[in-house]
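Section 4.2 – Deliverable D4.2 (structural model, holo form)

The reporting period included a commitment to supply a predicted holo structure for the target in complex with 2-phosphoglycolic acid. Inputs used:
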Amino acid sequence: MLIAGNWKMNSDHTSARLLASAVVSAVGDPMQVHVAVCPPFVNLDATFDVLHGTPIRLGAQNMHEEDAGAFTGEVSASMLRAVGCYYVILGHSERRQYFGESDAGVNRKIIQSQSHSLVPIVCVGETLDEREAGRAVDVVSSQVSSALEGVTLVSADRLVIAYEPIWAIGTGKTASPEEAQDMHAIIRSLLVSQFGDDFGTAVNILYGGSMKPDNAASLLEKKDVDGGLIGGASLKAEEFAKIVRVAQETA
Ligand code: PGA
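Output (structure tokens):
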């Protein structure tokens, strides 16, 4: 089980420290649940200062697929490792939608992140139009297959998938627990066919899209929902910690 907070383009150097400290105290000992926060690049360092020595891990929200070079404005996997990142979110729908990220690019980033010992949190999800047209399963399956092409695993905890229906992100609408479970089961079967039973059944598949303390239990108790990628509710330490507690109860 993993509960990860995606702070998106929120916080500054000072407020990131304050939020990270508040998360550390509100979460306390997360026990069997893994917990991470993903601040903007410029606040990674300050956040790591606070998280260092606590059970809460650091993640980034994106990275470039190359090691170094003439890529103005970009950040590499080794830079993320150097500031203490454990996870990196890749292929978030906002990256795909606003910054033109493609399945092939996401695939290259996953391979690069793993070669630098980062754990990618790979986001997939359909739009409302795609769901209404009955294409959600096709879209998500194809995103998962392209993202994972040529990816290998040394252990199941080196990869995380996040199913985030785009129509549920930041909208207050969530997929019903059944809709989430159905899609997670499809993703699970793709993971099993690529990585085999042992790894495929053990990779964490998170749900993301308006997960809050009051709807977390019904989602997290589903068989193939192994955690959450939390946007809005991760900006309030108490709300985020409540979701972690729900995860502990359902784990
Ligand atoms: P939300 O965002 O929880 O605010 O819907 C989730 C995400 O985009 O990862």
